[in-house]
DNA sequence: GACTATAGTATCAAAATGATACTTATTATG
DNA sequence: CATAATAAGTATCATTTTGATACTATAGTC
């Protein structure tokens, strides 16, 4: 089962296939083949469902739903069009019908956010830092501080500026950046205890 | 397949069943039942393998190994004895034969370390702060700063001191603490970019 | 041109971190 | 018994990180 996410209309959206007359979100599914790797099986399912191999993908868990179901979390860039017969559904609405699988996928995205380039893969090759921050805010479900976000991001040498600027409606144009990780993070910082009790 | 971890002899160890004449580590396995929840299936497997339900458990992934294999990561307190027919094997040695499954389990433990009480569950009900720090160091594979570790831990209100002290060999006795989370962490801190490029 | 909206920067105080060194309490050794 | 050794736990302080606030820059709208 594929939980393929993108950003659409400023919200996280998941790919849903149009069931026969059903209004509930349905995630694309395929039988797990008995041969080949699971990675390959995930690619096959993705290609059938989205028409392309996702730019990021991870196992999100296994569910018992009328048999054993593996959930694959996947990510495609904002702007990817859904193939006919499927559409992007805002996660809030989709949760109602496919809650467990979608939740597993989102949890996987959140958990990997600081270790793998999930947010960058949810964006086109070039993007503004405000867009990037919005993706982080979507996935973390909280507001981030603008100056701190940029300072930390730039200090991590994960992006490089391009020559291009984008003027979007009102205010000052934003510079476009490209994901271009330079250095490994050498210094490890202290432990965090975010336990909820 | 069960990757059940504990701390033994100052190292992370995984439960291995003694195969017929095999020296290689073998993780306990059971067929996924067609009925019931996966959580229950994990408990059944654990009870058969360790003689008890683990104090912490999580899905660690799915592997394609001569058929589809689900890996369950589990944790039992230090000092738990392995049932006859099985033994604790230091992770370093066990990795050789069951690398993928064990690695998936360790990754799960590490990823959850700051959000779920994995380290506390690897210890008996009461423990010293040095022991706790050692568990964190084992799982994170790096040294931590003593004063910072304690400051942060106490500020998180996750442990409470007991009246008991333990004198272990030489130096000053250590106070025993109990896992007793008090408050939810209200403040969220800034984003970390630990991407490896 | 004034107003508003958004990008991006600067400054500064507060908080978190890590190094170092210190104190305390115990066992080992002579 | 005195002293050394060892480990727990604490204190101090400089450095780094963080977040609030306010600022400048550049565009569109009225």
Topology:
The structure is a homodimer of 197-residue chains.
Chain A: E1 2-8, E2 11-17, H1 38-50, E3 56-64, E4 68-75, E5 86-90, H2 91-112, H3 118-121, E6 126-128, H4 129-140, H5 146-155, E7 159-166, E8 174-179
Parallel strand pairs in A: 1-4
Antiparallel strand pairs in A: 1-2, 2-5, 3-4, 6-8, 7-8
Chain B binds a DNA duplex (30 and 30 nucleotides) through residues 128-130, 145-148, 150-152, 165, 167-175, 189-190.
Key attributes of the depicted protein:
27% strand, 8 strands, 5 helices, DNA-binding, 197 residues, alpha+beta, three-stranded antiparallel beta sheet, globular, five-stranded mixed beta sheet, homodimer
Low-confidence stretches of chain A: none
- Count interface residues per chain for the largest interface: A-B, 44 and 44 residues
* Structural class assignment of chain A: alpha+beta
Oligomer: homodimer
Percent helix of chain A: 25-40%
Along the chain, the helix and strand elements of chain A come as EEHEEEHHEHHEE
Global mean pLDDT of chain A: 92
Strand proportion of chain A, as a percent range, falls in 25-35%
Major beta-sheet overview of chain A = 5 strands, mixed
* Termini separation of chain A: 32 Å
Count the E strands of chain A.
8
Radius of gyration of chain A: 18 Å
Read across the widest sheet of chain A, the strand sequence of neighbours is: 3-4-1-2-5
Quick one: overall form of chain A? globular
**How many helices of chain A in DSSP terms?**
5
